[in-house]
Amino acid sequence: MAKKTMDVIQEILEHLDKSLDDERVDIGPISPENLEISYPRWSRVIQMMLESELIEGFAPVKTLGSTYTSFKAIDPRITLRGIQFLADNSNFSKLYRAAKEIKDWIPGL
Q1: pLDDT for 99
Q2: In contact, 58 and 19? CB cutoff 8 Å
Q3: Is 13:5 a contact under the CB 8 Å cutoff?
Q4: Burial of 82 (0-12, 13-18, 19+ CB in 10 A)
Q5: Which range marks the domain in which residue 64 is found?
Q6: Contact 37, 8 (CB under 8 A)
Q7: Rounded distance between C-alpha atoms, residue 42 and residue 3, angstroms
Q8: 104: exposed, middle or buried (C-beta count within 10 Å: 0-12, 13-18, 19+)?
Q9: CATH number of the domain within which 26 lies
Q10: pLDDT (tens digit, 9 = 90+) per residue, 12-43?
Q11: CA quadruple 3, 73, 10, 45: dihedral sign
Q12: Pick from 50, 93, 97, 91: which is nearest to 69 by CA?
């Protein structure tokens, strides 16, 4: 079963966030193989994340005959917007929003 794009984005951001203290970021854990997705999908997700300013430090690599842009990790890092995305999409945040919404539905709570 294919992973949902949001799950892939979450995994990439979490890894880059955990790597902030590292001298060099190991991109092995966020490689297409380790994320269990195809290279074209990985490249397209990285491109979306770059365009959304969630991450930085990936350079485009043009490949003749390819229908997508490949990317090479130069100095991969999460941005402040990426950190905010993680905070907004954490399981706790989702649970809190759901509980708040339920509370609004039920009078007297």
Answers
A1: 72
A2: no
A3: no
A4: buried
A5: 5-105
A6: yes
A7: 11
A8: exposed
A9: 1.10.10.10
A10: 999 999 999 999 999 999 999 999 999 999 99
A11: negative
A12: 50
Q: Work out the number of other CB atoms within 10 angstroms of the CB of residue 3.
A: 14
Cα–Cα distance between 44 and 46 in angstroms, integer?
5
User: Phi and psi at residue 52, in whole multiples of 5°?
Assistant: -85, 0
Q: How many CB atoms lie within 10 A of CB 47?
A: 16
49-101 pLDDT per residue, tens: 999 999 999 999 988 888 899 999 999 999 999 999 999 887 766 676 677 77
| Integer Cα distance of 57 and 60 in angstroms | 10
Retrieve residue 3's tokens.
């992973």
Number of domains in the chain: 1
Tokens 């060099």, residue located:
24
Residue the block writes with tokens 């991450």: 55
